[in-house]
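Section 5: illustrative case.
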């Protein structure tokens, strides 16, 4: 049973952390003062992890860290800190702290950080020995089975995911920049974290930034930091994400959303491996691996002028494509069971699994939101379930009734819709007297011809949005119900016409 020492002068934090970590199989010790912490460090020589607040009465986290490093050089120390102490936290990591967690505390984040620290405890060398790890299929399966226990990302067992793991194991130990392509919710950040764990930087920070959430005005400050007084509202110095990730990995999600001027600054950082804070006058050297992600092809964005081509070529050292969930249906239940396990832990339940009907629904449903949608559906269903198995009544209406909501027409099936032949009215030959009049087709009324043209537009739009009917309705500027009604009307007319 791993032993964790919590050092914090806040009784409530100690109590909550003790309860949470004990529930997850740890033996927990508490020290409310620096003096008590020193006594326990001397007394318990078999500690596995120390979790210490930075601000303590009479001392600080630095003193605790230095004492531990002197006595137990390989004992991981995790610092608990507030946002205002971020700069100090980074300095402590340079002095040997394993990592830091920000207040307010999130239990899962602490648990994941402790698990990562335990891995380095098992491998006390300066760098984790990951480069020699085999990347064969047997190792892939072994890693997949271990992931749910230690809180890491769970991978599927399909052929496409085994290939994905092989790519991660191949590029992980290098310092290559990586571009990850994938739809929203497909797990791009989790892939980036897995690459980081397989790298020589695994014991250093992993910082993830959603570029789509950065405003044009504050993007430079968030990425590169700013000096006090550099702009209105800059009342303190701020360390940017690149500095926080120094020595480790930075993950830039939806990078195509960055403005042109920020792309220029980013190009300089990538080329020269140094940055300058907003309002600063000196260059700061950095050593950071960059992994980026996008749901659109950056080369195409570069051709359209939305993304700098030179920046694209700087990043394009290795590319990974994360397949959407609908293209690997054999993985759906693997992920669903994993998310159920996490939901059970969170809710304190012991749900055994899913009914056969629910498994069938999950495999037929087209998961437009990918893993994020599946995870949320399972969490909701677990909350509503009182028995041993999740039943269809615990699922959202649009998922439990997915088959009923689909059209009986072949339009429902993406693999058949592409081959659907739509009858479009064609002009009749001009009159014999050479007039320019175009005759109305003999077999169509004006109303039917209009519906045919409407249907062609609907069909083309559905193809463009990958058969997501909600998106198609938005593109066509109609509601989803109207979209259903229009296709049903076409079916009725088509049935009548075929019966003539």
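Designed sequence:
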């Amino acid at each position: 049973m791993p032993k964790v020492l919590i050092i914090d002068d806040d009784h409530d934090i100690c109590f909550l952390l003790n309860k949470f970590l004990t529930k997850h199989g740890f033996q927990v010790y508490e020290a409310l003062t620096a003096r008590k912490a020193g006594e326990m460090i001397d007394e318990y020589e078999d500690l596995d992890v120390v979790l210490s607040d930075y601000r303590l009465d009479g001392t600080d986290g630095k003193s605790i860290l230095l004492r531990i490093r002197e006595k137990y050089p390989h004992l991981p120390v995790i610092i608990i800190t507030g946002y205002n102490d971020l700069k100090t936290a980074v300095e402590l990591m340079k002095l040997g702290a394993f990592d830091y967690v920000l207040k307010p505390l999130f239990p899962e984040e602490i648990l994941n950080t402790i698990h990562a620290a335990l891995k380095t405890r098992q491998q006390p060398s300066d760098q984790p020995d990951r480069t020699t790890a085999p990347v064969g299929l047997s190792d892939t399966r072994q890693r997949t089975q271990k992931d749910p226990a230690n809180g890491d990302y769970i991978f599927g067992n399909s052929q496409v995911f085994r290939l994905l793991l092989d790519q991660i194991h191949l590029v992980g130990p290098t310092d290559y920049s990586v571009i990850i392509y994938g739809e929203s919710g497909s797990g791009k950040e989790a892939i980036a974290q897995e690459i980081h764990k397989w790298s020589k930087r695994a014991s250093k920070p992993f910082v993830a930034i959603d570029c789509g959430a950065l405003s044009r005005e504050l993007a430079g400050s968030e990425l590169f930091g700013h000096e006090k007084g550099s702009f209105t509202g800059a009342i303190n110095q701020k360390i940017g994400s690149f500095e926080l990730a120094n020595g480790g990995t930075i993950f830039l999600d939806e990078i195509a959303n960055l403005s042109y001027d920020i792309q220029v600054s980013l190009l300089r950082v990538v080329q020269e491996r140094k940055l300058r804070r907003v309002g600063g006058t000196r260059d700061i050297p950095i050593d950071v691996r960059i992994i980026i992600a996008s749901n659109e092809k950056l080369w195409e964005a570069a051709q359209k002028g939305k993304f700098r081509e030179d920046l694209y070529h700087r990043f394009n050292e290795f590319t990974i494509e994360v397949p959407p969930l609908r293209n690997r249906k054999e993985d759906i239940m693997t992920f669903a069971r994993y998310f159920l396990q996490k939901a059970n832990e969170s809710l304190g339940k012991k749900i055994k699994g899913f009914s056969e009907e629910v498994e069938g629904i999950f495999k037929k449903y087209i998961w437009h939101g990918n893993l994020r949608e599946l995870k949320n559906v399972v969490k909701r269903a677990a909350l509503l379930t009182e028995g041993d198995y999740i039943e269809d009544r615990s699922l959202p209406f649009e998922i439990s009734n997915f088959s009923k909501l689909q059209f009986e027409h072949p339009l429902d099936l993406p693999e058949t819709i592409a081959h659907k032949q739509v009858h479009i009215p064609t002009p009749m030959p001009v009159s014999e007297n050479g007039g320019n009049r175009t005759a109305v087709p003999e077999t169509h009324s004006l109303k039917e011809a209009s519906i045919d043209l409407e249907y062609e537009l609907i069909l083309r739009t559905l193809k463009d949005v990958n058969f997501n009917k909600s998106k198609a309705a938005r593109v066509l500027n109609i509601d989803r119900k109207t979209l259903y009604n229009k296709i049903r009307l076409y079916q009725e007319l088509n049935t009548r016409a075929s019966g003539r």
